[in-house]
Description:
Elements: H1 2-26, H2 31-52, H3 56-65, H4 67-88, H5 94-101, H6 103-110, E1 116-121, E2 124-129, H7 134-155, H8 160-188, H9 194-204, H10 206-219, H11 225-252, H12 257-265, H13 269-282, H14 289-323
Helix pairs in contact: 1-5, 1-11, 1-12, 1-13, 2-4, 2-9, 2-10, 2-11, 3-9, 4-8, 4-9, 5-13, 6-7, 6-8, 6-12, 7-14, 12-14
Keywords: Membrane, Transmembrane, Transmembrane helix
InterPro entries: EmrE
Pfam families: EmrE
Amino acid sequence: MKPILLGIAASCFFACSFILNHAMQLEGGSWIWTSALRFLFMLPFLLLLVGSRKNLMPLLRELKTHFWRWFLWSLIGFGLFYVPICFAAAFEPGWLVAGTWQITIIAGTLLVPFFHETVATPYGPKKVRKRLPRRGLLLSLLIVLGVGVMQFEHATHIAGRDIFFGVVPIVVAAFAYPLGNRKMMKVCEGKFDTYQRVLGMTICSLPLWLGLSIYGWFTVGPPSAGQSLQALIVAISSGVIATILFFSATDMVKGSLHHLAAVEATQAGEVLFTLIGEVLFFSAALPTLISLGGMLLVLTGMILHSLASSKNELVVVAQTTTEL
């Protein structure tokens, strides 16, 4: 149950990104700076955290030895995740971006067959491709149905072009985030804690953020003081606190793809937290009853994922106790 609670707590802090990203767009801030500043601001905080735990040098040696693997999955897990999210914020309100982002739950389920596990055979250990968890897929489809309902209602009020640019980038990000996260867990092989992994991915994705900053400086000019402050808040709350909470939760269940999918499903809480935040702090209009119905489907899917995970965990514990 602890990984689920950590996942829900992470979703609360992650919601800060959706709220402030949309606010920065409304105030004229470019998505280029919104994405780049978050990770540039994250770096000193993470260096301080990892350095204070005396874990910096082992990480730097690992990056020097296996840089290209870290670079690839960091670009996918951080870059291909956050840049599209910030871009989409220019076309949809924060609560709708957060709702559509829940496609990541079914994305995480669909990625299962792309990973292998080692099983014992009469001929020795053998790597086999993991099977698609059907129950998890059905629960994930309920969440996607809720996303579809919300987007359908929203589509009646805006142009098709805005729907396209508001949805397609999020779908790309929804697959990139769990893929990058899971691949990095494989690369780390349990050698590094969550703080080290987040710092390593931030360092390895720096070329992207620095490149975006240079591009932004010459195309849209420097960021405003307001955007910089908001990006700093996002970096601390979502980039540092939420990411560490979420990665800690996934590290706890990395041996079980079913539990991993359940932890990823807790991110559906971002929809509710984002809606509450936008209404309270930015006086945003409440969604229609149809959109609220879609949101309810998303949250129901998240709860069912968590309950199914808890039930399976109890069965495993009971079987283990019987064997002992």
